[in-house]
Each structure stands twice: as C-alpha cells, then as structure tokens.
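During the second year of the project, the team shifted from modelling isolated chains to modelling whole assemblies. The rationale, set out in the original proposal, was that interfaces cannot be judged from single-chain predictions alone. As a representative example for this report, we include one of the complexes processed in the last quarter. Its constituent sequences, exactly as entered into the pipeline, are reproduced here:
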Amino acid sequence: MNPMRLRGLINKESRQIIRDPSSIGIAFFLPVLLLLIFGYGVSLDARNVPLALVVEKNSPQAMSLVSGFSRSDYFLPIPMRTIQEAEQAMMRRQVDGIIWLRHDFAREMLTGGKAPIGVIVNGVDANKARLIEGYVTGVWFNWLQRMKKAMGQELKIPVTVEHRVWFNAAVSSRDYLVPGLIAIIMTLIGAMLTSMVVAREWERGTMEALMVTPVSMKEVIASKIVPYFVLGMGGMLLSVLMAVFLFQVPLRGSMLPLILSSSLFMLTAINMGLFISVAAKSQFVAGQIAIVITFLPAFILSGFVFDIRTMPVVIQWLTHLVAARYFVDILQTLFLAGDIWPLFLINSAWLCLMALVFLVIIRKKSRKLLE
Amino acid sequence: MLRKILALMKKEFRTILKNKKSRMVLIIPPIAQILVFGYSASFDLNNVPYAVYNEDPGLASRQLLARFSGVPEFAKVATITRDSGIAPLINEKKVMLVLHIGPDFTRNLNRGRTAKLQVILDGRNSNSALISLNYVRDIVKSFNMQWAARHGMQPVPAQLVVRSWFNETLNSHWFIIPGIVALLALVVTLEVTALSVAKEREAGTFDQLLVTPMTPLEILIGKSLPGFIIGFVEATFIIAMTILWFHVPFRGSFLVLYTGIFAFLLSAIGIGLMISAISVTQQQGLMGAFLFLVPAVILSGFATPIENMPQFVQYITYLNPMRYFLIIVRASFLEGASFSLLWNLYWPMVIIGIVTLSAAGILFRNRMY
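Output from the structure prediction step:
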C-alpha cells in the first residue's frame, strides 16, 4: 500500500461523504433518533394492565382482594357487574384479563372450602399473559397473608421461593433492551453507510476509471473502510452516551473492552456492507439485499429480545452467522454485569473471524477485472 | 389507459425479475426467514440451564429437586457445593439460574415451619429471568399442594383458577408466527417499491417516463401493481406455511384476513413509493426504507406490546400501518374475530395508503432536481 495514494483516496471518499448530507445523517442523526424512540418505546414490563373485576356479591373478603388489585402498580382494575360484560370487554381488547369472584365466594371461604378465584387472561400475547399470571399470583399471595394476619394466624406455606435477580435487581427490561438496541442500530448504520459505495462506483463507471490508475484494489478497499469506520464510531459514541445518561442504564464494565468490542463490531458491520456492495455490483440489488439480510436477522436472531438459549439447536448454530449476536452479548454483559473476560474474548474472537472472512471475500470478489 | 398501465407493469416486473440476484433476493429470503424465524422467535423457555446448590442432607430437598429434572423446561448442567461456585456459572452464562437450598430445609419442613428455596437468576435478559422464575414457582406450587395434602396441613382458603383464552397452553409461537406474515410482507413490498423510482431518477429514465402520454395516475398504478402482486403472493405463501407447517390454528375467516392484507399492502406500497419519489439517489431511497421499516417493526407490537410504551410513543404508532395489521392477523388466526370487532382497524391503513400514494403521485411530477 502506498500511503500517498491511500490518503488521496480517503480524501476523495471523505469529501463525498461531507457533500452528500445523507451519510452524515445516517451516522449521527439516525442512531440518536432511533435510540430515542426505541429506548422509550421498547419494554416488556407490563404496567397498568387493564383488568376487569367482576364481584358478584360484596363481602369484606372480596373487598380486600379488590383493594389488593387497585394498589398494585401492575394493574388498572375496571369494575364490572357481570361476567358477560367482562367477556365482551375482553373480546373488544379493552381489558387483558378478568378476575371473577362468584356470589358464594365469601361463604365458601369461611366454611373452609377452597373458594375459587376465577382468572381469565387473553392468551394471544402468550408472554404478556404469563407475566400477568405471575403478577396476579403475587397479589393473591399478599392478600392471603393479609387475611390470615387479620385473623391472628400465620399463613402456612411449606416452601417459599425467594429470588435474587443478579445484574438487574429491578428486573427492568429496558436495561437489557437498550444495549441490544445499540447493536441492532449499529448493524443497520454499517450496512446503510457502505452497501452502496462500491456498487455506486461500478454503476457510474468510476470503478473502471480507477482501474487504469496505479491504485491497487487493496487501497480502494481500505479507503472505503477508514472514513466510514470513523463515522460509524462517532454514531456509536453517541449511542453509548445516550444509553448511560439518558436511559440511565448502568455501565458496569470498563472502557477498554467497550472501545475494543465497538471497534471490532463496527469493522464487521462495515465489511458486511462492503461485501453486499461488492457482491451486488448494482445499487438496486445491493439495496434489496441490505434490506433483507441486515435488519430482520439482527432483530430476531441476535438475542436482542428472543433468548438464543431457548432456540432449537440448529437455529442456535445459525445465529453464529449474525454478527449482531456477539455484540448484543458483549454489550448486555458490559453494561449490566461488568468485565467478564471469558465471554468477552470468545465473542470478540468470533467478531474478528467474521470481519476477516468478509475482508477475504471482498478481496476475492473485487479483482481488477472487467466483466 | 389499461394498455399503458399493463405495459408499464410488464416493464416493472422485468426490472425486478430480470436480474438473477434480484430474483433470488425476492424468493429465497422469505422462505428461509419464515422457517428460521418461525422456529426461533419465541418467548417460551425450554431446557433452561440451571445449577443445583443443595446444602440440605434431607429427603424433602431431593424430592423437590427431582421435580425440576423431570420437566422439559429445565435442564440441569451443574452441581455446586460452595457459594463461590455461583458467580462463574452465572457470569459466563453457563446457567440461567441456580437453585439454592439451605442446610435446614428438610428439618424446617418436618417441623411445620416454612422452608426456603432460594433462586439466583441471571438478569441480563430480564424477561427470561421472570419467565423462568414463574416456571420455578409453578413447580414449587405443585410441590406445596402435594406436601400439604400428605401432611394434613390446612389448604389455603381461596385458590386461583386460571384459564387463558385463545391460546390455552400459552404457546408464544402462536403469537409470533402470525406476526411474521406482517413482517415479511412489509419487507418484500418495501424492497420492490422503495428503490424503484429513485433508480429511474438516477438513470434518467424517469424523466423520459414523464414526457410520455402517461398520466401520473397511470404511472402510479403501474408502479404499484407489481409490489402489490408480489406482496400478495408472498403473504399467501407465508400464511400457508403458518397454517400447514407450523400448525398455528386458523379460527377466523379468510375474507377478514385478506381484506386486511389488501389494506396493509396498499399502505405499505404507498409509503414505499413515497420514499422512492422523495429520494434523488438510491442511497437516499435505502435510507428512507430503513428509516421507515425499522421503527415500523419495532413499534408495531410485534415483539414488545404497544401498551407498555409511553403515551407519546403510542401516539406515533397510530401512523404505523403494521400496528393495525398485526392485530387483524392475530385476531384472524387465534380469536376467530369477525369484521364487527375489527372494522376500526381497516380504515386507518386505507387512509395512510391514499395519502401516501397521492403524495407519491404529486412528487413524481413536481420533484425535479
């Protein structure tokens, strides 16, 4: 590589970036905007779930259970007179669940029978339904304890579950979703920045013009990577700052692994974009490929929302082809758990490997040949 | 007029299908993605890797632990004997949770005192942590009922009787896979439309199109139909896969569903063409496509519920056609809903479609650069 020629090419590329505002927009404006919307918008924690409460006959026991639901942050109870009315509301998606106390509830309770508390949840969103069930169980358990205490007794439960959630004591889903979002957004930025740049030169014929110069293909590729890498890292820095200061996600790891892994990932993402560009040779096809292979796999197969550990084994292997997977893992750990070197090294090694493989393919596919 | 539109449509189809790579991009990814995503996108947990840290020599703790090794939700991967063993297992993600039983577990139980099962969870994925904690609680609950019955303990005076509608076993695949219909239909239509005008602008052929006798309306229809047909065919394919391959129950009517697909494709194509008409270069078209696609998917309720979003983000989602269509697809599949329950979800998509298509038509003529 000749440093002077390389500098010339990088200069040209940088000017092109500065003169077309869309690249700078992609690198700086886009991550801020997306992280802002998603950081606030993406959450799996159900709060204020609308819940129909059907109490067929008032009693002190029923009232105390109802007050338990009203006091809970998780629920927004809506009193209803009949179960039919509640079922109608559920069909219309106005409530996500129904609590149903029949008219003989208090009597059965006092006569020592097992009085049933009817709970109906809308199971369409199974994950949410399961969380709602968990919250209802919590309210029910607290209520039982209160009732027993009022009677001067103690609730006898053979085994109780005491849990401690490490790294995320408040069990806030935002804390793990925001680091994941950074990885997704950066995958897109890398692809958007670079998937068009080589294809554009082919289409406009400037690639052929480059070929008659003494510039080597290595230098061309390097000149495409360097400026976009700098841009991308700028966007990355903004995203991390937003995660820490705006969304208050704790950053428990140290700076060195954060910077190292960010650079590695940015390099992989840019190489992937260049690979698309080199493989497609037309902007139209490159754009299509970028839309299809970057966002959805990064969204679904990276472990960002869907836990990789629970996927079928074959799919778990497939996720190794998704660069975002490694970065999601690194970021979630760095933010929430701290420096855990074995995890960091394995994931970084995979990222290195991916970046190298892309680079080799790009080199192979971009010989100085005309078709 | 019809002949002119047909001619343009034919040409559009050729541009999309002529190039081998472009053809592949349209056909292979949707097939591969419905298969891969269909199996992978789930919130249910199986084989949750866990470790046991049992300090209790008694029988009861072993009975409780036996219940964990007998279910498909859990898979034991390690046994530890010291406090210090917990951290490495959880830190390095070898296990998702550790079950810790203290030394006096059986003694407490036999004396009628409450015994404790301590669960230490990896909170890096807090949703998985909560779900697996719920599984643990279910197992402990059934252990408790059996223990109470055997030892003549008084049962709790009121029991929860839980039933879930539409998805009795709470299988989250049933929620996610119909959603993939919306996801892939949106991606495909954007792929076909978002770059189509920008490409011609860059090549200069769009100016030529404008000086032909075709009206903007005819150009608009000719540009929309290919996306519409391709989106329709792929959506049908994915719906067939959802029903026949993944066995998600289809309880509603195809008329309700396909009316939804029609309205959804209309709005998606409108947005795609509008993006394309605004863009001067294909790079801008691509940026526009992502700028719409990514928020449209993430803020659609596909994976994370819209009700959990803050109010101002919820207002933004009203502009998102996918939000409406997702409810229609899921309601058609699982709830068997009829038009009367869904009518207010159709017209927002139609309005978005009409507004964006008109904007695209106006921009065709007026955006010169």
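The longest strand of chain B covers residues 115-122. Chain B touches chain A through 118 residues (CB under 8 Å).
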